[in-house]
Write a structure and sequence with these properties.
Keywords: Membrane, Transmembrane, Transmembrane helix. By secondary structure, this protein is of the alpha+beta class. It is built from 6 helices and 16 strands. The chain has 4 domains: about 100 residues, no CATH class; about 50 residues, no CATH class; about 80 residues, OB fold (Dihydrolipoamide Acetyltransferase, E2P); about 55 residues, no CATH class.
């Protein structure tokens, strides 16, 4: 640790003196012979630099604005004037002019416009690749969730019109689908990106998943149907009791109680005229 200052309380009226303090040994070494060649303004100047190797007895200094430089032998207290090349040698330091991962990381930590420019150009392709991978997966996951939240119903395309938006040069089309839900005819609007090669026209039958609470729907394709989880099969279920819950239009609401594998299962259904509910054995899919 280099400790330096002025010999007077008013720094500008005194001369510079200093000591080199060794934190391990707790000893001070006089460095005034070297520092005395500087004014207090030179000492306070940020362009003034000092350097000492850990195992060396040489203390160096340079003041770049004045192009002044020198060295002090701490053992003999001899002061020498250094040339520009000698100063450059200890300013760079051993190995610091060699490119390495550590030197590159030190340069990165300093920041600056060049580093920011590098970061931006690195992030652009990385984010683009991640978007190409993640967006289709997120869209597929979102559609699967919407299908599971709705009820699958058949419908008919009533109207179709382009929205003016294109995704990957394919038009985003607004479809109006008519369908029957709980005995009532309803219409819902669905937007979907389609290819110009798709042979879709008004009057085509479609399968949708309709969310009653939100009054929204999505198209259900053959791929979506295949991805639906398979129902569990309970074999040799025995019908134990039939409970009447009331009437719905022309049918009756029933709750059927089955026993299978030591467990009781209850299912609700609408019994239409002529439906036989007296079978003793059945297979249940749920």
């Amino acid at each position: 640790m280099l400790i330096a200052g002025s010999t007077t309380e008013d720094e500008l009226n005194g001369t510079v003196l200093g000591y080199l303090y060794n934190e391990k040994t707790g000893k001070f070494i006089d460095a005034t012979n070297l520092l005395g060649q500087l004014s207090y303004e030179d000492l306070a100047n940020e362009e003034t630099s000092f350097f000492k190797e850990p195992e060396s007895n040489m203390l160096y200094f340079t003041e770049r604005e004045q192009a002044a430089s020198g060295s002090l032998n701490l053992d003999t207290q001899d002061v020498k004037v250094l040339t520009g090349e000698q100063v450059e040698g200890w300013l760079i330091g051993k190995g610091e002019n060699v490119m390495s991962l550590q030197s590159f990381w030190n340069y990165v930590k300093e920041g600056g416009p060049l580093i920011l420019n590098w970061v931006i150009w690195l992030l652009i392709p990385i984010l683009s690749i991640l978007a190409l991978i993640m967006l289709p997966l997120m869209a597929k996951k979102s559609k699967t969730r919407k299908i599971s939240q709705g009820r699958q119903l058949p419908g008919t395309i009533l109207r179709m019109e382009e929205t003016g938006t294109y995704v990957n040069d394919m038009p985003l089309v607004r479809f109006t689908v008519r369908f029957e839900d709980e005995g009532q005819m309803k219409e819902v609007s669905i937007k979907k990106v389609i290819s110009f090669l798709n042979d879709i026209k008004i009057g085509d039958s479609v399968l949708i998943s309709y969310n009653r609470k939100k009054h929204k729907a999505v198209f259900v394709t053959g791929e979506d149907v295949r991805e639906q989880p398979k129902p569990d099969l309970i074999k040799d279920a025995v019908l134990s009791r039939i409970e009447a819950l009331g009437t719905i239009n022309r049918g009756r609401a029933l709750q059927l109680h089955f026993k299978a594998e030591g467990r009781d299962y209850a299912f609700r259904l609408c019994s239409l005229p002529g439906l036989n509910t007296a079978s003793a054995n059945a297979r249940i899919w749920y």
